[in-house]
From TrEMBL:
Keywords: Isomerase, Pyridoxal phosphate. This is Alanine racemase. Gene3D superfamilies: Alanine racemase (3.20.20.10), Lyase, Ornithine Decarboxylase, Chain A, domain 1 (2.40.37.10). InterPro entries: Ala_racemase (IPR000821), Ala_racemase/Decarboxylase_C (IPR009006), Ala_racemase_C (IPR011079), Ala_racemase_N (IPR001608), PLP-binding_barrel (IPR029066).
Length: 356
């Protein structure tokens, strides 16, 4: 018996089609496509009609090019491996004024997307004036080498509803877009909306060519007020009861006195999955499902967990950690960790990996 990471390909595809509708989508495939597997995800997205991808890794961008020879591929992180960018026709962010001045002579024939930092402050030009200074210089220089193909930002607060931050970053961004277009600058691609912004607005923003969606394509809601019916999770993580142990009142179980039995004849299922397989300790504060019933996790170890069960549970029974009932996003909203945190933690070197 081996604990298993399993994705239903049909459900994955159905969710992708439901999320994208008729919109132009740039599918985010960073970090091995949120741990779903880059080859699997790219092929699924191509099947759904998506032909534009983004990632933060140049190596991943090159792998996407091998899987999708005709796709547009955007690297969200800067790179100075300019020959690789040219050889594989990878678009890249232009992340700052200083980067432009340092490398402008080496950016010839590379498609760049000018980035505005916005409230996230992770990367990007700080002001409209900084962006204009580059565009004015670029388009007035007949020897200018790079190809300004895109304009983009990231909304860091689109999943926050308790403050004004999202409205501010949206307003600031739209002012930049409108001003640049009014001045006559044109861009083949303008993209800003992540899953949360796209779901909040229920549309593509004015003048934007693409929505840049990540987590929603992989089956998780970006914020809790979104109906569970909007997005469907195709992922199941399942393990097995390898034996049943019976302990008595005041017995300690697990490392460092993790669980103290409150009653005699307490039944504990030993399950073959643990934090070494990527189960977060915060996830272990909640329940699993066995034969359609919920049972609490009592202790988490590297390769095992204890689950308190009743007489209905026996050795070899299947234990569900995640599925469309015990969803990644539900646990996100319970404070277990971000959707992407739970997904990326799963150790696909130790778990059996299946696509069904």
């Amino acid at each position: 018996m081996v604990a298993t990471w399993e994705v239903n390909s049909n459900i994955f595809q159905q969710n992708v089609q439901r999320v994208i509708g008729d919109y132009n989508v740039m599918a985010v495939v960073k970090n091995n496509a949120y741990n779903y597997g880059l080859e699997f995800a790219v092929n699924q997205f191509l099947k759904a009609g998506i032909s534009t991808f983004s990632t933060t890794s140049l190596n991943e961008a090159i792998r996407v090019r091998q899987l999708a020879p005709d796709a547009t591929i955007f690297l969200m992180n800067p790179s100075i491996e300019f020959e690789k960018l040219r050889a594989h026709d990878i678009h890249m962010t232009l992340p700052s004024l200083s980067f432009y001045h340092q490398y402008k002579s080496e950016l010839h024939d590379i498609h760049v997307h000018v980035e505005y930092e916005n409230l996230l402050h992770r990367s990007g030009f700080k002001t409209l004036d900084e962006i204009l200074s580059v565009l004015v210089e670029h388009f007035s220089d007949v020897d200018s080498k790079m190809k300004v193909s895109g304009l983009w930002t990231h909304f860091g607060y689109a999943d926050e509803f308790d403050g004004p931050e999202y409205e501010k970053e949206l307003q600031d961004w739209m002012n930049i877009v409108d001003t640049l277009l009014e001045k006559g600058y044109q861009f083949e691609m303008i993209h800003a909306q992540n899953s949360a912004s796209f779901m909040r607005e229920s549309k593509v923003l004015n003048h934007h060519t693409h929505v840049r969606i990540g987590i929603a394509l992989y089956g998780s809601r970006p914020y809790s007020s979104l109906s569970r019916d909007t997005i469907q999770q195709s992922l199941r993580v399942k393990a097995n009861v390898i034996q049943i142990r019976e302990v008595n009142e005041n017995d300690y179980c697990g490392y460092s006195f993790a669980f103290k039995a409150k009653h005699d004849h307490t039944r504990l299922a030993v399950v073959d999955i643990g934090y070494g397989d990527g189960i977060l300790r915060t996830r272990a504060q909640h329940e699993v499902s066995i034969k359609g019933r919920k049972y609490p996790i009592r202790a988490l170890m590297m390769s095992h967990m204890f689950v308190e069960v009743d007489e209905n549970v026996a050795s070899t029974d299947e234990v569900i950690i995640y599925d469309n009932d015990l969803r990644i996003d539900d646990y996100t909203f319970k404070g277990v960790g971000a959707n992407s945190e739970q997904l990326s933690a799963l150790n696909l070197d130790s778990l059996k990996k299946e696509y069904v």
